[in-house]
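Inputs:
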Amino acid sequence: MMMIFGIPAPLLFGQLLLGLINGAFYALLSLGLAIIFGMLNIVNFAHGALFMLGAFAAWGLGSYLGIGYWWALLLAPLIVGAFGVVLERLFISKLYKLDHLYGLLLTFGIALILEGLVRNFYGSSGLPYAIPPELQGGTNLGFMFLPNYRGWVVIAAVIVCVITWLIIEKTSIGAKLRAATENAPLVQSFGINVPRMITLTYAAGVALAAFAGVLAAPIYSVNPNMGTNFIITVFAVVVIGGMGSILGSIVTGFGLGIVEGLTRVFYPEGSATVVFVVMVIVLLARPAGLFGRAH
Amino acid sequence: MNRHGLFGLSRPQLIAFWVMIAAIIIAPAVLYPVFLMKVMCFALFACAFNLLIGYVGLGSFGHAAFFGMGAYITAYTAKAWGWTPEIAILAGGLVGGALGLAFGWLAIRRQGIYFAMITLALAQMNYFLSTQWEFTGGEDGIQGVPRGDLFGLISMKSDMAMYWLVAFIFIAGFLLIYRIIHSPFGQVLKAIRENEPRAISLGYRTDDYKLMVFVLSAVIAGIAGGTKALVFGIATLTDVNFPMSGEVILMALLGGMGTVFGPVVGAAILIAMQNYLAPFGAWVTVTQGVIFVACVIAFRRGVVGELAARLRISL
């Protein structure tokens, strides 16, 4: 068997892949958080709950309507995005003139409501969601065995992250978005409907979370707590990367997933805490975050 | 404003304070002492949290770490080493404070929303470590903690004996916080809350002040946690886990952030609610969420803040 640093290669690559998958979710979630924060100036604590809602939407579409994985991948983000529009219009839009902290408190409350409701109706043990038939099984890459679905998750996440980045950096919609992030009143004075843009930004951010939720559904069991477990780590990711940069949150997300995977190989006890340890180191060395701008 | 007595309470505050003392004395005749002790422990915890968010504008989302660590240390020293309750609780407060020093030192490097996220992340790290450390007992927690004898003399076995100890700790902590808020040190804290750049330009090292009050808050949270551990004879992962941080935030928010009595009222309401809604399982979480949303959207001053504003007094 091939050994790398005294570790069997399949184990090393297997954990790296697991790390990469976690990293994919970190990247998708922190990307959504960064987009929402840039435009709305709130930290969306409900992001984890909406990620969970995406997974549940996929499960619900499958069990009640017989809609399969591929359509769910499209529909669940749309459903959750539409829900995001309602949330933004009804609640979050009331807070823009207040301290940032209230946004965090409000979205935390929303997260509690969503998780509590789901737990009431579906229990907390988790519901199974099958891997679509096209992606079952695995491929032998020679140095490791790659379960097809896990490979797909990484590829899909990278594609969606790149598309999001292209939209924001290279299209006219993205240019308007970036301009409104810098100076909303000025952009509005050019006749662009900024409030609508804010609403749609929130919807897009939570749709990304829901997309991640659908991707996660076959890997983790669909349960009400799946979002909370992720979101706190994602907050650490956001602190490390800084919320100022889109590319920064993608890179940081994937990078920390890999770091976590490597830790699981070399020092398993530290795998749960390594992201936080990295956060502490970054705070000491570069308080504004790796890609952040000091303000 | 008229100030009275040692702690300089204004007249309405003085009245409210004596009402609270009277309630503490009368209540055990009507309600379960254990329930009341739980309320007082959480009220002290919420007051400690409010010291940060209400008076310095620092929103900590990781206060469960100090509360839970206080609970673990008190439980461990009382059970394994047979420390008397007063020493065990003090130890809980000191270790909570030491943890607060480390957290605060890191977190005050960033402002506002980042501060909240950093404290949350550090507390989560503390939670994961608590699942792994041996002395915490992992999933089982530390159970069957003896209440011991106060000063090695007075048995705390009976609920009423424990009740007076908890009442003493609560009132002492409450007055200490009040004293901090209304000291020259507290004035600087409020200046930082209102306008930090100006406080800096006046020559205050605001980071030192923030760190100091963060540690004070963590010490008091640790004492509250330690006291709770002795009341129930148990310290578990629930005490250090994230929902506990959320609960204390909600207590301060519901009662009124930045009011002296708000966190006490908020803690009483929430603990009562948990007691009566307990049979409904996850509806407690939903109700808490609804209260959060309602408070933030329509009721930002909280119960006590609203009352004080109506009566045009400060409570």
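The mean pLDDT of chain B is 88. Flag for discussion at group meeting.
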